[in-house]
Amino acid sequence: MDTINKLPLEMLYHWESTKADAPYMTQPIGNGKVVEYTWGRAVDEARRMATYLKSLNLPDKSRIGLISKNCAQWVMTDWAIWLAGHVSVPLYPTLNADTVNYILKHAECDVLFVGKLDDWDSMKSGVPESVRCISYPLSPPNNFETWDDIVAKYPPLEGQVHREPAELATIVYTSGSTGRPKGVMLSFENMAFSAAGGIQTLGVGPEERMLSYLPLAHVFERTFVELGSLYAGFHLYFAESLETFVQDLQRAQPTLFLSVPRLWVKFQHGVLQKVPKQKLERMLKIPLLNRLIKKKVLKGLGLDKVKLAGSGSAPLSNDVLDWYRNLGLELLEGYGMSENFAYSHMNKPGRTRTGYVGEALPGVEVRISEQGEILVKSPATMMGYYKDEEKTKETFTDDGFLKTGDKGEIDEMGRLKLTGRIKEIFKTSKGKYIAPAPIENRLMSHDAIEMVCVSGANQTQPHALVLLGEEIRPKMADEKFRKEIEESFTQLIKDVNKTVDPHEQLAFIAVVSDEWSIENSFLTPTLKLKRNVVEDAYEEKVDSWYAQKQKVIWQ
């Protein structure tokens, strides 16, 4: 069917009437057990919850929050909120109490759905007493009204509710690598244009299977998983936990798979711990072994049925991209942001170029400003920031183009290359400007490195803070291991410094012993580096590191 001009609820009614008995969502509930939701059951429960929400007599377009790890109820809640005439406000399931409180108050949420959470005890103090809470079947123990009780008690909302294309559908609070999160207002048209355009470009249909495990509160996952399944009609599987991830993958046997750079690197490191890179490359060059080895590695990752794999949220290093493509996995990078519901650029099969995030998607206008900033415009572009007209005005050009904050360049085939963030550029004591991202990309070619942060504002030369791969971190106290790493990283600095301008050459690599995680605020909920937090954490040590005049320094 033609989905381009259909709004999300229209797609919901389509599957309700044509595929009511077809499986739609598979939800693990522990001990290896799952609950299967057909399209009919999922829409029925959403309609019943919508009846309940209408019974609360909230003003039209009230903001309703949902905080949970990914699960079937998350998706059904979004539908129920729309059916009841309201606006959904997703919150990341890893937020602290202060940020939960800020978002619920800023959005003026009247109701909050509470679901699967690892640390509810530390965040619940952020929920104002005036907010009515509803708990999902897999939520932590609480005294709230439950999803199951409500859908058992209330009848399904009848008929086909119509929401206007320009109506506010959701407020997405950015994961905020700097400062307070901003509320990105997205309309039904924004969401529809992004989801339908992406699905059509990739040629995705109802026969696909997808595992949902990245946060649905992030537009990357929400576009391709929740909205993607709504526009293509494919089967969604949910992950139960990190501990069961391998079993969840094997159950789903996904044909579509999305991840973020840090996880693609982790998957690669897991393989290279079992088979060293050089040995794997040698085996892949033997014609008789090539196909067998590729299949075995991808099967070990649970990705042997994957037809299309995607990476987004941040740039992936060229070496990692090439490594996966060498295994026969069509790993496509895309580019988008909360402000355009992840709809901007995408690599297409057979037209990829390493280091580029692809061509503009249908309906996207793009240009590069005199300052080198990427400017984009499409029907997926946000309505603006909630309660912040000044910031909204700052973010758009006079002719309606969105200022992305990213620097880039476009090749002769229209493919876009990201060359750094405008706000990440820093100045050395020599007065020279440095964009850290391209240097970080080169450093990430080393197998031992999981994450890196290039810094050096007001220093003579930049330096790199490096987090080693999780599997090898325990060896940091071993002298022999340290010597090997020092030799390898010294050579890495030489190799990288040959490829950059003199003022960009690295003074040293500092190997850190700390964990960089969401919990200690070094990473955003989508595993992107919070550069300012990382830099602040090591600020007191930096001068002494420069004074050591060593190429590799251990924290």
Q: Which properties best describe this structure?
A:
555 residues; 17 helices; 3 domains; 35% helix; alpha/beta; single chain; Rossmann fold; nine-stranded mixed β-sheet; GMP Synthetase, Chain A, domain 3
Description:
The chain has 17 helices and 27 strands. It has 555 residues and is α/β, with parallel strands linked by helices. It has three domains: 199 residues, Rossmann fold (3-Layer(aba) Sandwich); 171 residues, ANL, N-terminal domain (Rossmann fold); 130 residues, ANL, C-terminal domain (GMP Synthetase, Chain A, domain 3, 2-Layer Sandwich), CATH 3.30.300. The strands form six sheets. Strands 12-13-14-15-16-21-20-18-17 form a nine-stranded mixed beta sheet, with helices on both faces. Strand 22 and strand 23 form a beta hairpin. Helix 2 packs across helix 6 and helix 7 packs across helix 8. It starts with 7 loop residues before the first helix and ends with a strand.
Question: Would you summarize the structure shown here?
Answer:
The protein has 555 residues and is an alpha/beta fold. A nine-stranded mixed sheet has the order 12-13-14-15-16-21-20-18-17, with helices on both faces. Strands 4-3-5-6-7 form a five-stranded parallel sheet, with helices on both faces. A four-stranded mixed sheet has the order 2-1-11-10, with helices on both faces.
